Amino acid sequence: MEIQYLKTSIESLENDIQRNMKQIGYGIEAKVYSDGRYAYKICGYRSAYIGWLLFLKENGYENHPNVPKIEKIIVGKGGNRCVVMMELLKPINCDKLKKEYDTIEKTYDRYRAKPPKKVRKKLNEVILSIRNFSKQRKNGIILDMHLGNVMARGETLVITDPVI
Ligand SMILES: Nc1ncnc2c1ncn2[C@@H]1O[C@H](COP(=O)(O)OP(=O)(O)O)[C@@H](O)[C@H]1O
Ligand SMILES: [Mg+2]
After folding, report:
1. H or E segment at 131?
2. Ligand 2: centre distance to CA 100 (Å)
3. How far apart are CA 38 and CA 127, in angstroms?
4. Is residue 53's pLDDT more than 80?
5. 164 lines ligand 1 (CB under 6 A)
6. 85: which of 72, 78, 133, 148 fits an S-S bond (Cβ 3.0–4.6 Å)?
7. Interval between CA 16 and ligand 2 midpoint (Å)
8. Can you tell me which atom of ligand 1 is nearest the CA of 25?
9. By the 8 A CB rule, do 76 and 9 touch?
10. CB 50 near ligand 1, within 6 Å
11. What is the CATH number of domain 2-87?
């Protein structure tokens, strides 16, 4: 994951993306576009989401199968907004992943009190990492787990946007 700091504001890159790419998603904080090969998420740079991506990198989860592969974060002048260039993922559309997601959501509901045992070990790591991340943030974070914030890479569940 490379971080690129622009000398210009993010607007011209944003205009380029909006002109040349297809919008594939949006949320409260972000708009997501694609050129058919990668996804480009335009969002605030000081958000909990970016904090989480940097936390993953710092803690060795960058290549974890259950988190998105981030190619680059392009930060506009002033550091308020950025574009996250990442792997293109698919919505969850099979029962296997829906079930897996259910387990995660249940785990989320109770993970504060007691770390989960039954969830696959690999997913556990990511959930626990979010737990550690939320402890580290002074102002706290809000967990935002719903089906719109998890996606699929083939048969693998990817947690894309778990915090606000
Ligand atoms: N890597 C990706 N590949 C394909 N679609 C994506 C990707 N990341 C996000 N999306 C789509 O964009 C939507 C909004 O992205 P999300 O990261 O949840 O932003 P927000 O912070 O605004 O909720 C998602 O629900 C999903 O449909
Ligand atoms: Mg979201």
Report:
1. helix 121-136
2. 18
3. 25
4. yes
5. no
6. 72
7. 23
8. 12
9. yes
10. no
11. 3.30.200
Whether the predicted pLDDT of 55 surpasses 50: yes
Asked if residue 114 has pLDDT above 60, the reply is no
Cα–Cα–Cα angle for 147, 97, 37, rounded to 5 degrees: 75
Q: What separation in angstroms does the CA of 9 have from each of 54, 74, 102?
A: 21, 11, 41
117-127 pLDDT per residue, tens: 555 555 666 76
Q: For ligand 1, is residue 148 a contact (CB within 6 Å)?
A: yes
Long-range contacts of 11-14 (CB under 8 A, 24+ apart): 11/76, 13/74, 13/76, 13/83, 14/42, 14/81, 14/83
Inter-helix orientation angle 121-136/48-58, to 10° = 120
Domain ranges of the chain: 2-87, 95-159
